[in-house]
Design goal:
The complex is a heterodimer of chains A (333) and B (328). With 333 residues, chain A is α/β, with parallel strands linked by helices. Chain A has 11 helices and 7 strands. Chain A has one domain: Thiamin diphosphate (ThDP)-binding fold, Pyr/PP domains (Rossmann fold, 3-Layer(aba) Sandwich). In chain A, the strands form 2 sheets. A 5-stranded parallel β-sheet of chain A has the order 1-2-3-7-6, sandwiched between helices. A two-stranded antiparallel sheet of chain A has the order 4-5. In chain A, helix 1 packs antiparallel against helix 10, helix 1 packs across helix 11 and helix 5 packs parallel to helix 6. Chain B is an alpha/beta fold and 328 residues long. The chains are: A alpha/beta (333), B alpha/beta (328).
């Protein structure tokens, strides 16, 4: 996989959609780079942040194939999903500062991001934790005869959890409108996937439960989009769930802004190889080549996003912390 | 006044809940089985169909997450555990997810979900089919816990639990299923967080829940023959706890025996004893608070051992007598 030539992106999609994908990926990247700079050396952000740099194409490709009313559930690595689903940057940044204005009002921090207004009813820091919950939302949609789908984002580590298998079984048994999106970034915290799974081809687990499972290049945003679109169409038509395994790579370590190279957890060669396969640079090259976007427009997009991210930082900095009186608020509704 | 059994009261509550609340549904392992849940689910599948009455594989953790995810999409699930023991398989979804969900996201997402937990002990079922885990769940913030003792409360508290809009663990006891009592035919609720005085008395307060309320009543009858006048407080809700009612009774009697169907150590009885001791009631106490609960041992199979393992009217009588002998 690592050394394989990358295929050019397929471009039979509306120009606006392609540009939106690009913009979303760049937003995630710039946001996460800024967060990294605020964790170290500034130490302004101290909640544990699991950064999404390198995986932007997965959240983007999946969320572009969804309606606002579709639900996505996220994980400890949640910022990319929130941004791709259309979440407000200020409220996300404020949550990373654990401020009262944050999207979880300073109670969740980086690992517990929610934005129910855009169809993100929560993220869990327990590996595999939101997989059955997303199946339950799909069950609700099915009982309510709503034309919506539910998406579970999870990492390769979730494929080591029993609840993953229980959930695939139940979703397939009941033909529920759910899409399982496994972001296989090849590492479960510090351990490479080959040290965790007897058979590391996660997509194959779908076959056992009589549902479609595919492995795709997760750094190809168009491929992610098209694969998700097909899965979503099937789900909406009552054909049940699909498991999509997106092969990708996180450029940074499991948590925080370090790349973990100094800890000997992976090689520089491996990281460099994946940086070369940057999903954003790849999209940019293709869009430029086909005249879908110009260098000038790209500069403008980046300038605009940088300004938005700075606005979010200013908002977070100037926001109040929760009051002491908030401590016991929200245990129950 | 119509009289029906405890099991029938639950059954009637389920019928009325699913018929009147379009978002309500029942899910769980064994709910269409002829034996898992007694007669509590009779007629539901035939009346409401498999979309609203969902019997499931034995995937407890997944199914609990499924109920939670359905609640987050606006449904009002009731998830059934035919043995409370099986809830340990679902602890991640119950404790890490369901209980935390509202708070973790700043109170903006509510979880209208009922966890129907059945205690089914005795009958030589041993350690993994007999547990009463009210203390485990009461310990977790973000969860309410109710334990009805009469058919009237069984129906009213189940309806209230569904209407509450928060995670409620509704614990019943199979030993209560045959008990008969007055139950109105209409749809009604019993408030969560309110206990009742089952018997007024002046000498000592016995606080109990669920099946043990009936044992306490037997004990009180027995003790009245020897001139001891027992007041019995039935908590109905373990969490939130009706402190007002409890304190009022202890203020009157100045003596307290706490009866709980869970283990004696670190349990519900300890919590109640602590609450009384922490307040100014402490100086009113004429004797130390006594606990009647399960010994610190797993449930045995042998009926010879079961007889001494489970507290009953006899153990309550002994505790009351001891308390009356003691002086602070």
């Amino acid at each position: 996989m690592n050394k394989k030539e990358q295929k050019p992106l397929s471009l039979d999609l509306p120009r606006e959609l392609l540009r939106k994908m690009y913009t979303t990926m760049v937003t995630i990247r710039i946001f996460e780079e800024r967060v990294a700079s605020l964790i170290a050396p500034k130490k302004e952000i101290t909640t544990p942040c699991h950064l999404y740099i390198g995986q932007e194409s997965v959240a983007t490709g999946v969320c572009m194939a969804l309606k606002k009313e579709d639900y996505v559930y996220s994980t400890h690595r949640s910022h990319g999903h929130y941004i791709a689903k259309g979440g407000d940057l200020k409220r996300l940044m404020a949550e990373l500062y654990c401020k009262k204005t944050g999207c979880s009002r300073g109670k969740g921090g980086s690992m517990h991001i929610a934005a129910p207004e855009i169809g993100l009813p929560g993220s869990s820091a327990i590996v595999g934790g939101t997989i059955p919950i997303s199946v339950g939302t799909a069950l609700a949609f099915s009982i309510q005869s709503r034309d919506n789908v539910s998406v579970a984002f999870f990492g390769d580590g979730a494929a080591h959890e029993g609840v993953f298998y229980e959930s695939l079984n139940f979703a397939s048994l009941k033909k529920l409108p759910v899409v399982f999106v496994c972001e296989n970034n090849l590492y479960c915290t510090h351990l490479p996937i080959t040290s965790c799974l007897a058979d590391p081809e996660i997509y194959k687990k779908a076959q056992i439960f009589h549902m479609p499972g595919v492995r795709i290049d997760g750094n190809d945003v168009v491929k992610v989009y098209k694969t998700t679109r097909k899965a979503v169409e099937d789900a909406r038509r009552g054909k049940g769930p699909t498991l999509i395994e997106c092969l990708t790579y996180r450029w940074l370590g499991h948590v925080g802004p370090s790349d973990d190279l100094d800890k000997g957890l992976r090689s520089k060669e491996e990281l460099d190889c994946w940086v070369k396969k940057c999903p954003i640079r790849r999209m940019k090259k293709t869009l430029l080549k086909h005249g879908i976007i110009t260098e000038n427009e790209i500069d403008k997009i980046e300038t605009k996003i940088r300004a938005e991210v700075e606005e979010a930082v200013a908002f977070a900095r100037s926001s109040p912390y929760p009051d002491e009186s908030d401590l016991l608020y929200g245990i129950f509704s | 006044m119509r009289t029906i059994s405890f099991a029938k009261a639950i059954n009637e509550a389920l019928h009325q809940i699913i018929a009147t609340d379009k978002q309500a549904f029942l899910i769980g392992q064994g709910i269409t089985s002829p034996w898992y849940v007694g007669t509590t689910t009779v007629g539901l599948i035939g009346r409401f169909g498999p979309k609203r009455v969902i019997d499931t594989p034995t995937s407890e953790n997944c199914i609990t997450g499924v109920a939670l995810g359905a609640a987050l999409a606006g449904m009002h699930p009731i998830i059934c555990f035919p043995r409370m023991d099986f809830m340990y398989l679902a602890m991640d979804q119950l404790a890490n997810h369901m209980a935390n969900w509202c708070y973790m996201f700043g109170g903006q997402l509510n979880v209208p979900m009922v966890v129907w937990a059945i205690i089914n002990r005795g009958g030589e079922q041993a350690a993994q089919h007999s547990q009463a885990l009210q203390a485990v769940f009461s310990h977790i913030p973000g969860v309410k816990v109710v334990m009805p003792s009469t058919p009237y409360d069984a129906k009213g508290l189940l309806i209230a639990s569904v209407q509450d809009g928060n995670p409620v663990v509704y614990i019943d006891d199979r030993w209560l299923y045959e008990k008969e009592g007055h139950v109105p035919e209409e749809h009604y609720s019993v408030p969560i967080g309110k206990g009742v005085v089952r018997r007024e008395g002046k000498d000592i307060t016995v606080v109990a829940t669920s099946y043990l309320v009936h044992e306490a009543l037997k004990a009180a009858d027995n003790l009245s023959n020897v001139g001891i006048d027992v007041e019995i407080v039935d908590l109905l809700s373990v969490k939130p706890l009706d402190e007002k009612l409890l304190f009022k009774s202890v203020e009157k009697t100045n003596r307290l025996v706490v009866v709980d169907g869970g283990w004696i150590h670190f349990g519900l009885a300890a919590e109640i004893a602590a609450r009384v001791s922490e307040t100014c009631l402490f100086k009113l106490l004429k004797a130390p608070v006594m606990r009647v609960a399960l010994p610190n041992a797993p449930a045995p199979a042998s009926s010879a051992l079961e007889k001494v393992y489970y507290p009953n009217a006899g153990s309550i009588v002994s505790a009351v007598k001891k308390s009356l002998e003691k002086r602070n």
